[in-house]
Write a structure and sequence with these properties.
27% strand; 22% helix; 12-stranded mixed β-sheet; 397 residues; 14 strands; globular; single chain; two-stranded antiparallel sheet; 11 helices; alpha/beta
């Protein structure tokens, strides 16, 4: 907490579940949405020849100026780093058993957070004055993933391995999935935003098709240096928005292209345990996707090449308002089984410190993490995912 804020208005703190983010899951942690991520590098000229050799990973962007604005310095100087380290050490200790969603470890975490909030004078932020908000959840686990492949009109099929190449689960409550030669469409950044006069879909009918999209926002340009808030990730750039727009369009499935630069984290964050449980809302969303997934950068490069282009070509085209959806000369096939179980309940923690004005400052962090890897424990190894960085550090603030 930053004490200086409480004198200006209400300070609201919300400690939430990451849900899919910190489960054993195919979607990234909540920190992806809260941070600033880099935009794609400049693409080569369109006549750059394709090569059969493996393309290098996207190079990192130059470092940004992270100097704090002068008005923020007094607030940041009020942060007690010694106390923060103590909170991190406590929450990341083995006795919390990795703070798995809906587990006794999470219950201990919630109790600790509430005690500490009360100690600094915060009160319950729920309408009834309590600190907690129950969150009913559904667990989804991939049991089998066979026959994953991209099949181009010309050339050999591209076999995919679940985990290293592709990960994903359905939005709905299905327990089996079978795609046999589903048509594919590249939709750029998958964004429709009239405020920016941007429409990657251009009213093209994508119902029943597998959509392929970049994450993040289109990069700002010299002529539009504040396009999509420049290097600040907007809601349109978040993975969850991409899925939401695909659902609204009636898509069969969506595969997001992962690069470390556009996502802000390595692919290993997503495929840490591809066959483990993830958590989502009990009720499926309207227009649920048959598969909401990700593909690695290396696979995306092979997909682009099989479509007669390169990944750099896709970046260049997608970064323009002139972009239009591209029907790919490639189909997608998959046969997968899932286990889905309702009945898991997690807990959000909501607290507030009343101030002197109607304005509020809201601070959020997720307190759950990956819990315990039972297989590692059975082998006599340390199976606890302690989660000091993700996200005991955020909660400790």
């Amino acid at each position: 907490m930053i004490p200086a804020m409480s004198r200006l208005g209400a300070c609201v703190l919300v400690s939430v579940l990451a849900l899919a983010g910190c489960s054993h899951s195919p979607v990234p942690p909540a920190t992806e949405a809260d941070g600033v991520v880099a935009t794609p590098p400049d693409a080569p000229a369109p006549d750059t020849p394709a090569s059969d050799a493996p393309a290098p990973e996207t190079p990192p962007s130059p470092p940004r100026d992270l100097t704090l604005p002068t008005p923020l310095l007094p607030s940041f100087s009020a942060i007690d780093t010694t106390q923060m380290r103590a909170h991190i050490a406590e929450l990341a200790s083995d006795r919390y058993e990795g703070r798995g969603t809906g587990t006794p470890g999470e219950a201990m975490t919630v109790a600790y957070i509430i005690r500490e909030l009360q100690r600094v004078g915060m009160v319950g932020g729920m309408p009834d004055g309590s600190f907690t908000q129950p969150v009913p959840l559904r667990s989804v686990q991939t049991l089998r993933a066979d026959g994953l492949r991209f099949t181009p009109e010309a050339g050999d099929p591209i076999p995919l391995t679940y985990g290293p190449d592709l990960i994903g689960v359905p939005d709905d409550i299905r327990e089996a999935l079978f795609f046999d030669g589903a048509p594919m469409v590249f939709v750029g950044y998958g964004i429709t935003n009239p405020g920016y006069d941007w429409d990657d879909y251009d009213d093209v009918d994508v119902r029943g098709k597998v959509l392929v999209s970049f994450v993040n926002d289109p990069p700002a340009t010299a002529s539009e240096p504040t396009l999509f808030q420049a290097d600040t990730l907007t809601y349109n750039g978040r993975w969850m928005y991409k899925y939401e727009e695909a659902r609204r369009r009636g898509a069969l499935a969506m595969l997001l292209i992962h690069t470390t630069e556009t996502a802000g984290y390595p692919f290993s964050v997503l495929n840490l345990d591809p066959y483990g449980e993830r958590y989502t809302g009990v009720e499926p969303p309207e227009g649920a996707l048959g598969l909401a997934g990700w593909i690695s950068e290396s696979v995306a490069r092979r997909l682009a090449q099989a479509s007669g282009m390169s990944l750099e070509d896709w970046f260049r085209l997608a970064g323009s308002r002139a972009f239009r959806p591209i029907d790919l000369p490639v189909t997608f096939s998959a046969s997968m089984d899932f286990a889905q179980e309702p009945g898991v309940t997690g807990t959000n923690v909501v607290a507030k410190m009343p101030g002197q004005t109607p304005e509020s400052v809201v601070y959020t962090a997720h307190h759950d993490h990956l819990g315990v890897d039972a297989e590692r424990e059975a082998r006599g190894e340390d199976g606890i995912y302690n989660g000091a960085v993700d996200n005991a550090s955020g909660v400790a603030m």
